[in-house]
Amino acid sequence: MSRPILQLDALRMVYNADPGILARLSGRADPPVIAADDVSLDLHPGQTLAVVGESGSGKTTAGRIATLQERPTAGRVLYEGEDVTALTGAALKAFRAKVQMIFQNPYDALNPRLTVGQSLAEPLTLHGLVPRAGLRAAVIEMLEAVELRPAESFADAFPSELSGGQLQRIAIARALIIKPRVVIADEPVSMLDVSIRSGVMNLMRGIQRDTGVTYLYITHDLSVARYMADRIAVMYLGAVLEEGPAETLISRAAHPYTRLLIQAVPEHRASATRRTRIRLPGDAASQAGLPSGCRFHPRCPLAQPICREKAPPLAPVGAAHRAACHFADDVQTHGLGAATAATA
């Protein structure tokens, strides 16, 4: 496999709560929130790594750190093998020309006071990539690439005149117009109707085939991850619990949480307009109050005493496949019907 183009290396992100007046008076402050805990992920050129998990799993935090919108409490971001974690000024600007982000909400991603053409020309001007005389042509070319036609009409339109699907295509165009090598896509189809999601996903796949761009695709939907990704990483409460090739992870999942996510994927229905978010038994623990041992044990149907006492390492369970479970081999072989024995 090729050398990773972007790496998240042992990331840790801790948010200290801002104590309110009552907390200050009582002397009781909220515990810190651990949004990322020893997260390591590799993105390979021209491939897609999907990061999947429930709300609060830390997947968006990982994406924001990957684009240096946030700086980790510990750990590193590596681009082509070089540590870029502390970049500032011109070097940071140059990095962001190579690593762009597509946000979840297309309605918030664009300035309502600018036309589509102005919004797309803005990053070209900011990074000095196209002379003023060539901006219009570059914008039209990009609108054609994201299948918005007639491109001239869309270039002169304002965001309020367009549908959600059209706005998301424009958000994709805005991220890609400066030809980045990596794009972090944070739930880019979750706010769109089912009828237009597949079109946007196919567009992104087609652009990847044509340009070789690398995606980090963040989603709560395991079926979307399977369709989009070469590899999938499953996160829970700030940690990666399983990671591997997409089809291998789906067919031979080695962590009970992954197995539950697979079971929770709803069926496609033509009448559906929204895909239901993941619903699993029990309530996820808070990132501010992680349980001892394995962080998933309070919800795990296979939990044994060792799970409450010792955190399992993220260890190999097959070729390029890792899982953090004391009973990964049993889960991989028998699924949630695994008969595990308590281990001291």
What is shown here, in short?
This is Probable ABC transporter ATP-binding protein. The protein is an alpha/beta fold.
Can you walk me through this structure?
This is Probable ABC transporter ATP-binding protein. It comes from Oceanicola granulosus (strain ATCC BAA-861 / DSM 15982 / KCTC 12143 / HTCC2516). This protein is an alpha/beta fold and about 350 residues long. The protein has 2 domains: about 5-20 and about 30-250, Rossmann fold, CATH 3.40.50; about 255-265 and about 295-344, no CATH class. The chain is built from 14 helices and 12 strands. α5 (about 115-125) packs across α6 (about 135-145) and α5 runs parallel beside α8. Residues about 270-280 and about 340-344 have low confidence and may be disordered.
C-alpha Rg (nearest Å): 21 Å
Mean pLDDT: 90
What would you call the shape?
globular
Q: What's the helix count?
A: 14
Structural class: alpha/beta
Multimerization status: single chain
Instruction: Report strand order across the widest sheet.
Output: 6-7-8-3-9-10-12-11
Pfam family, one: oligo_HPY
GO molecular function: ATP binding; ATP hydrolysis activity
Main location: membrane
Protein name: Probable ABC transporter ATP-binding protein
